[in-house]
C-alpha cells in the first residue's frame, strides 16, 4: 500500500502504526480521520507523525497533495493493469521484488545505524554543556568499552580518563575506533548520591546519578593531575563487528488475488532473502599497559602512529612502539619486563 500523501510504500511499519491507533483509542472511544487512515494503512508512519488530524481534514495544501497522489495512483494503476495484461505474472513479480529488496535492505540498514546510543538526557537544562558534550562524544563510548568489555583491565574503584580515542579511518560509524588510550586514577573523592525523588522516573534518576558521578570524576582527576599524580595507562584496540554480517532472512511475498497486488506474509513457499539489520558488538583485539615514558613517545609521535592506522584496517600494538634494531628492541623488552617484575 502506498501512502496517500507522500506516495511512499507502507511496508514493515504495521506494528508501529497499529500501536499509534491503539494508543489513540485508549484516550477516546472513536477514531478521528487521521487514525482511521493509519488503521487502514493509508498513510505512512512518517506522515502520521508530521500531520495532525486537523491538518488532514482542513488543510488545503495537504488535501491537494492527497488529490495529486490519488491521480498518480490511478495512472499507475492503469499502466499496471495494462502491463498485467501484457506481461506474465513472473515478470511483474520480478519487477516488484526488485523494488521490495531495495526498500527492505535500506530499512534494515537504517535500523542498524545506531551503535551505542547515548542515554537520553531528559531535562537537559539540569546538566551543564560540558556534560552534554561528553555524553554525546566518543569519550563516553570509550569509557564504557574499557569499563565493560576489557577483561584484562581492572577498573574497580578507578576513574577512567580517556587520553586519546581515534576513530577508525574511513569508517562510516562514529563508534568505530582504531585505538583508545586511557589513564586510570584511584577514586579519592566519593560522589554523594541523593535519593530518588518521587516524581522522577528510573531513567531520569539514572541520568542524574551518572551526571553526579561524572562531576566527581572530572573534579577528582583534575585535582590528582595538578598534584602530579600519574595513573596507570593502557592501550586498548577495539574492533567493531556486525554480528549479523552477511546474514539474510526470508521475507515471504505472495500475490494477493483479492487485492491484485503482492504482499508480505508470515509463511509461504515464495520468498526473497533480505540482509538482516546489523547488530553491533565490540571485540577487544588487544589491551596492554604501558608506562609513562611510552605514553610520552606515543603522544609525541601521535600523527605518525595515526598515519599507520590509515594503512591497514587491522591495527596491532606494534605501531605504538618505535621501530628499533633487533638488539635494541630486545633490550627495551628486557627493561620493560624488569619494570613489570618490580611492580608485581
Ligand atoms: Zn507518507
UniProtKB/TrEMBL annotation:
Q: By what name is this protein known? A: Uncharacterized protein
Its organism's taxonomic lineage begins at:
Bacteria, Bacillati, Bacillota, Bacilli, Bacillales
For region Disordered, the annotated ranges are 324-344
Q: Which residues form a coiled coil?
A: 59-86
Top-level division of the source organism's lineage: Bacteria
Q: Which UniProt keywords apply?
A: Coiled coil
Task: Spell out the Basic and acidic residues composition-biased ranges.
Answer: 332-344
